[in-house]
Amino acid sequence: MLKQHSSFVKQAIALVDCLLILGAFSISYFLVSEYRPLATLQNYLLMPIGFMAFYLYFAWTRHLFSILQFNWMKGLNRRILMIFVSAGILGAAILYVMPDNFDSRWLYFIFAMISFVFIFTEKLTLKFVIAYVRRRNRNITPILLFGRGRIASQINKEINAHPEWGLRIVKKLDVSLAPSEFEEVLKTSYIEEVFFCIPRSMTRDGFLVDAYVHICEEIGRPARVFLNLRDITRLAQWEYQTFLEYPTLLSHTVELDPDQIVFKRIFDLFGSLIGVAVLIVLYPILAILIKVTSPGPVFFRQIRVGKNGKRFVIYKFRSMTTDAEARKAELQNQNELNGAVFKIANDPRVTPIGSLMRKLSLDEFPQFINVLKGEMSLVGTRPPTPDEVKEYQNWHHRRISIRPGITGMWQVSGRNAIKDFDEIVSLDLKYIDSWSIWLDIKIIVRTILIVFKRDNAY
């Protein structure tokens, strides 16, 4: 059966995708050359090669070539879109930093669009063909479902509702079956995989799945053990990892996809380099204005709490008097926010030039250095002070489970108009739970618009 040669199938699909991308490049070159002057084809070869490399990486890590896996069809359209967005942005970034001697911008755009259409059409065709074949009981994996309870019922229902997955539950056995009887069923039935669905309450009552899994191991049948852990947590996700050669399940509330983390870091590096370049231009002007209008250093440095409690020094252009921290206690009764954060509209500690910098968010530009160092991100949650963290409730701490940002959901959802710290935290958690690179881009664009409008800035 085809699923026994899945590695060959994945490699064959990857090869077909490469040919489609090369075909898309040839077509796009022909189309664009009809309307715009282009250099010879050889001058643009870096474009399809670089794009193809990024595409293969993201497609392989997102299992786009694993067409014989039963869950390959789940979220297929979204995966294809995100793979092309990721590969397309990285490819465009490389073309942007390289000298463009051959006017390749339009060619790249048309090439990316045609490639997307080709790959998307190919994958939809494969999806249709595979579903068609499996609905006619071809390329099917016979499953033995062993267990009881809600999780067994849900899995049985899901598999029966999706025949295109290629799974068929041919036998259902209750946990009351003795190991010897279970072994006899395996020996006398055509079973390619055993699904063990054991409720948590039963494991506490002393039921052991060990003997049954050992039988599968001896006979040579794959065993998939479903751990009924999803209902233990409300927000956390479960991820399988091997640690010191031991199988473990990691519960986490922050998306740990390494590809997205790398992509976000690349995005931060590009953004911070642009920010540092602007900082270099602003520094001489703002440094003179800060020095002339108030005594003290140009930069303000303060200990802040970053990801998972890691402390770092944040940098800002100084917008307050040098005794601002000492005077904070006497102004505490004027705090306009409820909870573990301090903010007042007409802060007497703010210098004249500091007020202007805050309205235009110019005081934040040195934080691009923090982003470049990896202590902060362009978008995230604002880093609190250690004193503020001491006042946190348990659920507040999840807002510092990610790298803090220069801007974030709070800043673009009302900024200083929001007066309740719990509402600020709720916005931060919404960002954490729904993070995507597109959300970061959206927040950055909205931040720029808000700065120019000077909404609620002080």
Describe this structure in words.
By secondary structure, this protein is α/β, with parallel strands linked by helices. The protein has 3 domains: 2-135, no CATH class; 141-232, 3-Layer(aba) Sandwich (Aspartate Aminotransferase, domain 2), CATH 3.40.640.10; 258-453, no CATH class. It is 49% helix and 13% strand. The chain contains 15 helices and 10 strands. A 4-stranded parallel beta sheet has the order 2-1-3-4, with helices on both faces. β7 (299-305) and β8 (311-317) form a beta hairpin. α1 (6-33) runs antiparallel to α2 (46-61), α3 runs antiparallel to α4 (105-135) and α6 runs parallel beside α8 (210-219). The chain is flat and about 90 Å long.
- State the domain count: 3
**Extended strand count:** 10
Query: Residue share in helices?
Result: 40-55%
Major β-sheet profile: 4 strands, parallel
Q: What is the percentage of strand-forming residues?
A: 5-15%
Structural class: alpha/beta
Euclidean distance between termini CA atoms: 67 Å
* Unreliable spans: 1-5
Order of SSEs:
HHHHEHEHEHHEEEHEEHHHEHEHH
